[in-house]
């Protein structure tokens, strides 16, 4: 009888030890999942903040570019852009500008024509030479968009958790 009681106690201790091992494993797994979840939430919050900061910087830059288009320097820049696009695309180039900017292009490069384009929102020029199967985009919106990846790489807004 004593032997049976001892065996029962050992059996219960064994069951208890196994239960404690399983509880510890569940606790470790739960802790890991909670930690990973919190890290993901923190990363998502940091990503959202980074995006908000970047959007703010680019909204400010866009406002400054819009202000630039109201200066005399813009007309000179637009004229230089037209000359550069015509030189790269050659004879038969069609330049596209905002309707408001067409009046600023007083001296078109030789062999070029000008057409208004309402899709150019901020300013600058697009150009195409269909005969040469070439096109170029020198709009301020495209230039600004091209700076976004450079900004993200160099602004020090990286996310490391």
Question: How would you portray this structure in words?
Answer:
The chain is rod-shaped, with a radius of gyration of 33 Å. It has a 4-stranded mixed sheet with strand order 2-1-3-4. Helices cover 65% and strands 12% of the residues. By secondary structure, it is an alpha+beta fold. Helix 1 (2-68) runs antiparallel to helix 4. Strand 1 (94-97), helix 3 and strand 2 form a beta-alpha-beta unit.
SSE blueprint:
Layout: H1 2-68, H2 72-89, E1 94-97, H3 99-102, E2 113-116, E3 124-129, E4 134-139, H4 140-154
Helix pairs in contact: 1-4
Give the topology string: H per helix, E per strand.
HHEHEEEH
Please state the structural category.
Answer: alpha+beta
**Beta-sheet strand percentage?**
5-15%
First-to-last CA distance = 61 Å
Rg, Å, rounded:
33 Å
| Spatial strand sequence of the major β-sheet | 2-1-3-4
The biggest beta sheet is recorded as:
4 strands, mixed
Q: What number is the mean pLDDT? A: 85
Residue runs with pLDDT of under 50 for 5 or more positions: none
| Overall body shape | rod-shaped
Number of helices: 4
| Number of strand elements | 4
Instruction: Tell me roughly what share of residues is in helical segments.
Output: 55-70%
